[in-house]
Each structure stands twice: as C-alpha cells, then as structure tokens.
Amino acid sequence: MTSVTFDQALLPAHWRDFVALTKPRVMTLVVFTGLCGLLAAPGHIHPILAFTAILCIAIGAGAAAALNQWYEADIDAKMKRTANRPLPAGRMDRQSALHFGVGLSFFSVILIGMATNWLAAAVLAVSILFYVFVYTIWLKPRTAQNIVIGGAAGAFPPVIGWAAVTGDISALPVALFMLIFFWTPPHFWALALFVKTDYAAAGIPMLPVVSGEVVTRRQIWAYTAIMAVAAMAPVLLQLTGLVYGTAALLGTALFAVFAFQVYRRRESDPARMAPEKRLFKYSILYLFLLFGAVVVDRWLLA
User: TM segments (predicted)?
Assistant: First the structure.
C-alpha cells in the first residue's frame, strides 16, 4: 500500500477541501463579532459596502486559517481531531494551501480598503499577519502562554467592523477587543483540558501539557475574573446601557459558575470532562450573547 505525503495528494483537491481550509465553524464567531462592531458603530454605511466589509473579514479569517493549516500540516497529522483535515489526510498539497491562503489575504485586504477605508484594511492585515507569524509560527510551538498573547488575533474583527464605518478606532471597539482577548484563555484552555493528549502527541506546549491540569484550572479561574472586569468595562465607561449591562452581568455570572466548577475539579479522567466541555460550549454562546446585546443597546441609545 502506497503511503500519502502532504505534498503528494492522491487527487486534485475538491472545492469542499478549500472551504474546510477556512475553518467555517470558527469563522462564524469571527464574522458575528465583526458584524456587531459594524452595526454598533455610529454613522452610516451603504448596505452593499457593509456586506463587502463583513465578507472581507470572513475571507481574511479564512486566509489566516488556511495559512495556519499549511504551516501545521505535520502537526495536524499527529492529532486525532485534526488528522482528517485536507492536508494531513492527503486530499490537498501544501503549495495549493499556501497559494490559496496568500491569495485570499491580499484579496480581502485590498477589497476592504477600496470598499471602505484603509484603516480597516490595515487592521485586517495586522490580524492576518499576527495570527500567522506571531501566533502560529512563533508562539504556539514555543510557549504555554501561546493562547494568551495569540488570542489577540481573534479580537480584531469588531475593531475592523467599527473602523469600516467610522474610519477611526474609539473606546468601545477597544473595549470589545479586550473582552475577546481575556475571554480567549478560559475558552481555549477548557478545550485544551479534554484534548490535551492530542497536544502532547503533537509536541505542542499547551498549558495542560506543560504545567498540568491543576495549574490550567487555576489559570482558567484567574482569567475568568479578569474577563469579568473586561465584560463590565463598557458599562462602567458608560459606552453601553441597560441591555448590555444586564446581559454582561448575568452572562458573566453563569460563566463564572462554570469556570469555578472546572477550577475545583482535580480528576484527570478524560472520560469525565463534563464541566470542561460545558464551559467551552457556553463560552461560545456567551460571546454571541454579549456582542448581540451591544448592538441592541447601541440602537436603543441612538
């Protein structure tokens, strides 16, 4: 039986494989936070230009994901949850993934710049470069704090959406950036706890692999506390009103309950990771809830 290498795909890549390179499930949250940043921004933007801006955010996120998979093809092959991606499964060659990712990157940045403004284009370019070079290439294989610093890459979309409308960056999009930034560690470490064997097999120094579960659970709880402050900052700074304040208070309280359940557990049985999975799933809903509340609040205050 002939083995398949990453640079020798059995067949030409199917269009579905190119879609898979963009990580569409992850892109959903990116697009939503970018859309909320755009809708919450003061001023007016033509609907076609607004659609173009959000499309570019999606394309830029997909480009970064494709370049991430191009660089990590060997690593993905060692992990059960990523082994069936197009590159490690041998359905696509690495050069195609590289060209696809680079092409999408340039297209998204140039298009959003021409459709809206070059500040939005610059922030989009920074987000792509940060994810690929700072997180994927530099931080992820070298430090257990990779997701703490690298989480900034996923925090740019609301800033891009806001800048596309206003041409500037003010306090609210910065506050939303900080919310995602501090939300990322507890969200991602909850996932890392129940897939740590994958990371260990691939040699990725994720926190549960390097420092153990106890330290990871403690860090999840600590970053949840910091995230709670970031979540309430828009209210304290009077950037939002009652709708967001209520959603942030109740939503963060429930997040804290789930995070505390993760923190107090000391078992390492991978078959009994219900609190970790619950926190991970809820953390996604939490971000949808808070960003949706921002938009409703801004419209009510307008």
Answer: 26-42, 48-71, 92-112, 118-138, 159-182, 220-237, 243-263, 284-301
Q: Kindly report, residue by residue over 123-146, the tens digit of the pLDDT.
A: 999 999 999 999 999 999 999 889
Q: Using an 8 Å Cβ cutoff, are 151 and 230 in contact?
A: no
CATH homologous superfamily of 12-167 equals UbiA prenyltransferase (1.10.357.140)
88, 69 contact by CB (below 8 A) = no
HEC per residue, 112-159: HHHHCCHHHHHHHHHHHHHHHHHHHHHHCCCCCCHHHHHHHHHHCHHH
Q: Encoding tokens for residue 130? A: 């940060």
